[in-house]
Design brief:
Blueprint lengths: L7 H15 L8 H14 L5 H10 L1 H11 L10 H15 L6 E5 L6 H12 L6 E7 L2 H9 L1 E3 L3 H9 L11 E4 L2 E4 L7 E5 L11 E6 L8 H14 E9 L14 E5 L4 E4 L3
Parallel strand pairs: 1-2, 1-7, 2-6, 7-8
Antiparallel strand pairs: 3-5, 4-5, 8-10, 9-10
Helix pairs in contact: 1-3, 3-4, 5-6
Protein backbone atom coordinates (compact mmCIF):
# COMPACT_ATOMS: atom_id res chain seq x y z
CA UNK A 1 0.00 0.00 0.00
CA UNK A 2 1.38 3.42 -0.98
CA UNK A 3 1.92 5.84 1.84
CA UNK A 4 -0.01 9.11 1.77
CA UNK A 5 2.07 12.04 0.56
CA UNK A 6 1.48 15.63 1.64
CA UNK A 7 1.55 18.49 -0.83
CA UNK A 8 3.16 21.84 -0.06
CA UNK A 9 -0.19 23.63 0.29
CA UNK A 10 -1.50 21.00 2.72
CA UNK A 11 1.72 21.18 4.72
CA UNK A 12 1.42 24.96 5.04
CA UNK A 13 -2.25 24.65 6.06
CA UNK A 14 -1.31 22.18 8.77
CA UNK A 15 1.39 24.51 10.12
CA UNK A 16 -1.09 27.41 10.05
CA UNK A 17 -3.80 25.42 11.85
CA UNK A 18 -1.39 24.36 14.60
CA UNK A 19 -0.18 27.91 15.13
CA UNK A 20 -3.68 29.40 15.17
CA UNK A 21 -5.10 26.72 17.47
CA UNK A 22 -2.23 26.11 19.90
CA UNK A 23 0.34 28.85 19.24
CA UNK A 24 3.01 26.29 18.31
CA UNK A 25 4.99 27.49 15.33
CA UNK A 26 6.58 24.80 13.14
CA UNK A 27 7.24 26.98 10.11
CA UNK A 28 10.99 27.06 10.73
CA UNK A 29 11.37 23.33 11.10
CA UNK A 30 13.08 21.68 8.14
CA UNK A 31 10.22 21.25 5.67
CA UNK A 32 11.24 17.75 4.60
CA UNK A 33 11.42 16.58 8.21
CA UNK A 34 8.08 18.12 9.19
CA UNK A 35 6.35 16.76 6.10
CA UNK A 36 7.75 13.27 6.64
CA UNK A 37 6.67 13.17 10.30
CA UNK A 38 3.10 14.31 9.52
CA UNK A 39 2.84 11.71 6.76
CA UNK A 40 3.94 9.09 9.27
CA UNK A 41 1.31 10.26 11.79
CA UNK A 42 -1.44 10.24 9.15
CA UNK A 43 -0.49 6.70 8.22
CA UNK A 44 -0.02 5.39 11.76
CA UNK A 45 -3.30 6.78 13.09
CA UNK A 46 -5.29 5.95 9.95
CA UNK A 47 -6.25 9.55 9.24
CA UNK A 48 -6.28 9.04 5.45
CA UNK A 49 -5.42 12.58 4.37
CA UNK A 50 -4.48 16.13 5.36
CA UNK A 51 -8.08 17.29 5.89
CA UNK A 52 -8.73 14.57 8.46
CA UNK A 53 -5.43 15.34 10.14
CA UNK A 54 -6.31 19.05 10.39
CA UNK A 55 -9.75 18.31 11.84
CA UNK A 56 -8.31 15.90 14.39
CA UNK A 57 -5.59 18.31 15.46
CA UNK A 58 -8.00 21.22 15.69
CA UNK A 59 -10.74 19.41 17.64
CA UNK A 60 -8.83 16.97 19.86
CA UNK A 61 -6.34 18.38 22.39
CA UNK A 62 -5.31 14.90 23.47
CA UNK A 63 -4.39 14.05 19.90
CA UNK A 64 -2.35 17.22 19.69
CA UNK A 65 -0.27 15.89 22.59
CA UNK A 66 0.21 12.67 20.61
CA UNK A 67 1.27 14.77 17.63
CA UNK A 68 3.89 16.56 19.76
CA UNK A 69 5.18 13.22 20.99
CA UNK A 70 5.52 11.92 17.43
CA UNK A 71 7.30 15.09 16.33
CA UNK A 72 10.06 14.40 18.86
CA UNK A 73 12.62 11.98 17.47
CA UNK A 74 13.69 9.71 20.29
CA UNK A 75 17.37 9.12 20.96
CA UNK A 76 18.46 5.71 19.78
CA UNK A 77 20.83 4.69 22.56
CA UNK A 78 22.56 5.63 25.79
CA UNK A 79 26.17 6.86 25.70
CA UNK A 80 25.93 7.42 21.96
CA UNK A 81 29.33 8.56 20.68
CA UNK A 82 31.18 7.05 23.66
CA UNK A 83 34.23 9.28 23.18
CA UNK A 84 32.15 12.30 24.24
CA UNK A 85 31.01 10.61 27.44
CA UNK A 86 34.55 9.48 28.25
CA UNK A 87 35.67 13.07 27.76
CA UNK A 88 32.93 14.35 30.09
CA UNK A 89 33.78 11.74 32.73
CA UNK A 90 37.58 11.87 32.60
CA UNK A 91 38.31 15.50 31.71
CA UNK A 92 35.41 17.92 31.54
CA UNK A 93 33.51 17.49 34.81
CA UNK A 94 36.62 16.94 36.99
CA UNK A 95 37.88 20.29 35.63
CA UNK A 96 34.70 22.41 35.86
CA UNK A 97 33.41 20.96 39.15
CA UNK A 98 36.62 21.22 41.15
CA UNK A 99 35.03 23.63 43.64
CA UNK A 100 31.58 23.59 45.28
CA UNK A 101 29.37 25.78 43.16
CA UNK A 102 25.94 26.04 41.60
CA UNK A 103 26.54 24.41 38.23
CA UNK A 104 23.49 24.61 35.97
CA UNK A 105 22.99 22.27 33.01
CA UNK A 106 20.22 22.56 30.41
CA UNK A 107 18.86 19.99 27.98
CA UNK A 108 16.73 22.16 25.60
CA UNK A 109 15.02 19.16 23.97
CA UNK A 110 14.93 15.76 25.65
CA UNK A 111 12.69 13.21 23.99
CA UNK A 112 13.40 9.81 25.50
CA UNK A 113 15.91 10.23 28.28
CA UNK A 114 18.94 8.32 27.00
CA UNK A 115 21.29 11.29 27.11
CA UNK A 116 19.91 12.60 30.39
CA UNK A 117 20.37 9.26 32.15
CA UNK A 118 23.82 8.87 30.55
CA UNK A 119 24.81 12.18 32.11
CA UNK A 120 23.27 11.30 35.47
CA UNK A 121 25.15 7.99 35.63
CA UNK A 122 28.43 9.77 34.93
CA UNK A 123 27.80 12.41 37.58
CA UNK A 124 26.75 9.72 40.05
CA UNK A 125 29.92 7.69 39.54
CA UNK A 126 31.97 10.87 40.01
CA UNK A 127 30.03 11.67 43.22
CA UNK A 128 29.06 14.99 41.66
CA UNK A 129 25.32 14.51 41.30
CA UNK A 130 24.57 16.83 44.22
CA UNK A 131 26.75 19.57 42.71
CA UNK A 132 24.55 20.30 39.71
CA UNK A 133 21.11 21.64 38.89
CA UNK A 134 19.61 20.33 35.67
CA UNK A 135 16.82 21.81 33.55
CA UNK A 136 15.10 19.50 31.09
CA UNK A 137 12.75 20.75 28.35
CA UNK A 138 10.62 18.94 25.78
CA UNK A 139 7.77 19.66 23.41
CA UNK A 140 6.02 16.56 24.71
CA UNK A 141 4.58 16.08 28.18
CA UNK A 142 4.18 12.41 27.29
CA UNK A 143 7.94 12.11 26.85
CA UNK A 144 8.63 14.01 30.07
CA UNK A 145 6.37 11.65 32.02
CA UNK A 146 8.06 8.62 30.47
CA UNK A 147 11.52 9.94 31.34
CA UNK A 148 10.53 10.51 34.96
CA UNK A 149 9.28 6.92 35.17
CA UNK A 150 12.67 5.73 33.94
CA UNK A 151 11.09 3.54 31.24
CA UNK A 152 13.32 2.18 28.45
CA UNK A 153 12.80 -0.37 25.72
CA UNK A 154 14.64 -3.47 26.96
CA UNK A 155 15.50 -4.49 23.40
CA UNK A 156 17.86 -1.48 23.26
CA UNK A 157 19.75 -2.36 26.41
CA UNK A 158 22.27 -4.57 24.62
CA UNK A 159 23.45 -1.57 22.57
CA UNK A 160 23.35 0.61 25.70
CA UNK A 161 25.51 -1.95 27.54
CA UNK A 162 28.04 -2.01 24.71
CA UNK A 163 28.35 1.78 24.73
CA UNK A 164 28.57 1.80 28.53
CA UNK A 165 31.54 -0.58 28.47
CA UNK A 166 33.38 1.82 26.17
CA UNK A 167 33.01 4.59 28.76
CA UNK A 168 33.45 2.77 32.09
CA UNK A 169 35.93 0.14 33.20
CA UNK A 170 34.59 -1.29 36.45
CA UNK A 171 30.96 -0.17 36.79
CA UNK A 172 28.10 -2.15 35.25
CA UNK A 173 25.08 -0.61 33.57
CA UNK A 174 22.73 -3.20 35.05
CA UNK A 175 23.51 -1.69 38.47
CA UNK A 176 21.43 1.28 37.33
CA UNK A 177 18.29 -0.43 36.03
CA UNK A 178 15.79 -3.19 36.77
CA UNK A 179 13.64 -5.23 34.41
CA UNK A 180 9.91 -5.80 34.60
CA UNK A 181 7.49 -7.20 32.00
CA UNK A 182 10.23 -7.18 29.34
CA UNK A 183 10.90 -3.49 29.91
CA UNK A 184 13.86 -1.77 31.53
CA UNK A 185 13.49 0.88 34.21
CA UNK A 186 16.42 3.15 34.98
CA UNK A 187 16.94 4.11 38.58
CA UNK A 188 14.90 7.29 38.80
CA UNK A 189 16.45 8.10 42.17
CA UNK A 190 19.15 9.60 39.95
CA UNK A 191 16.70 12.37 39.07
CA UNK A 192 17.98 14.75 41.72
CA UNK A 193 17.79 18.51 41.44
CA UNK A 194 16.02 18.37 38.08
CA UNK A 195 13.35 20.72 36.76
CA UNK A 196 11.17 19.33 33.93
CA UNK A 197 9.44 21.85 31.66
CA UNK A 198 7.09 21.44 28.70
CA UNK A 199 8.34 23.88 26.10
CA UNK A 200 6.84 25.60 23.09
CA UNK A 201 8.47 25.31 19.66
CA UNK A 202 9.36 28.99 19.63
CA UNK A 203 11.40 28.70 22.85
CA UNK A 204 9.74 31.66 24.48
CA UNK A 205 11.47 31.31 27.85
CA UNK A 206 15.03 30.33 28.59
CA UNK A 207 16.79 29.58 31.85
CA UNK A 208 19.57 31.94 32.87
CA UNK A 209 22.99 31.36 34.35
CA UNK A 210 23.55 28.11 32.47
CA UNK A 211 27.07 26.66 32.47
CA UNK A 212 26.51 23.70 30.15
CA UNK A 213 23.97 23.10 27.37
CA UNK A 214 23.64 19.69 25.74
CA UNK A 215 21.70 19.94 22.50
CA UNK A 216 22.87 17.11 20.29
CA UNK A 217 21.33 16.15 16.95
CA UNK A 218 18.31 18.45 17.29
CA UNK A 219 19.25 21.30 14.95
CA UNK A 220 19.24 18.81 12.08
CA UNK A 221 15.45 19.21 12.12
CA UNK A 222 15.44 23.03 11.96
CA UNK A 223 15.94 25.39 9.06
CA UNK A 224 18.70 27.99 9.18
CA UNK A 225 16.46 30.69 10.65
CA UNK A 226 15.43 28.62 13.68
CA UNK A 227 18.92 27.18 14.07
CA UNK A 228 20.51 30.63 14.27
CA UNK A 229 17.79 31.89 16.58
CA UNK A 230 18.36 28.94 18.89
CA UNK A 231 22.14 29.34 18.93
CA UNK A 232 21.83 33.04 19.79
CA UNK A 233 19.43 32.15 22.59
CA UNK A 234 21.91 29.58 23.88
CA UNK A 235 24.53 32.31 23.87
CA UNK A 236 22.28 34.53 26.00
CA UNK A 237 21.58 31.65 28.41
CA UNK A 238 25.20 30.73 28.99
CA UNK A 239 27.43 32.45 31.49
CA UNK A 240 30.72 33.75 30.05
CA UNK A 241 32.93 30.70 29.64
CA UNK A 242 29.94 28.34 29.64
CA UNK A 243 29.90 25.38 27.27
CA UNK A 244 27.61 24.11 24.50
CA UNK A 245 27.78 20.57 23.15
CA UNK A 246 26.13 19.80 19.81
CA UNK A 247 25.91 16.72 17.60
CA UNK A 248 28.77 15.20 15.65
CA UNK A 249 27.19 16.24 12.33
CA UNK A 250 26.21 19.74 13.44
CA UNK A 251 28.21 22.95 13.53
CA UNK A 252 27.98 26.54 14.65
CA UNK A 253 28.29 28.62 11.52
CA UNK A 254 26.22 31.76 11.38
CA UNK A 255 27.15 35.37 10.70
CA UNK A 256 29.41 36.63 13.48
CA UNK A 257 29.35 33.28 15.30
CA UNK A 258 33.13 33.40 15.74
CA UNK A 259 32.58 36.33 18.11
CA UNK A 260 30.16 34.31 20.23
CA UNK A 261 31.66 30.83 20.45
CA UNK A 262 35.02 29.15 20.29
CA UNK A 263 35.47 25.45 19.47
CA UNK A 264 37.39 23.90 22.38
CA UNK A 265 37.13 20.21 21.50
CA UNK A 266 36.84 19.44 17.80
CA UNK A 267 36.49 15.68 18.28
CA UNK A 268 33.40 16.03 20.47
CA UNK A 269 31.94 19.30 19.15
CA UNK A 270 32.29 21.15 22.44
CA UNK A 271 32.03 24.93 22.18
CA UNK A 272 32.68 27.65 24.74
CA UNK A 273 31.05 31.05 25.06
CA UNK A 274 33.67 33.72 24.67
CA UNK A 275 34.39 35.81 27.74
CA UNK A 276 33.83 39.10 25.92
Amino acid sequence: MNRYELGIVDTRNIIKTIQETYNYNFKNYALTFFKRRVEYIIDRYNLKDADNFIRRIRDDKDFFEIFLKEMCIESSEMFRDPSLWRYLKDEFFPAVLKKPQQYKIWFPEVNSGEELYSLLIILNTLNMLDDVRIMVSSLSQIHLNKIQEGYFDYSKMEVNEANFRRVFREERLNDFYTTKDENAYLDNSLLKNIQFTKQNTIFEEYPKGIKLILCRNQMLYYNQILEERLLKSFYNCLVPGGHLIIGANEKINYWNSEKDYILVDKNNNVYKKKLS
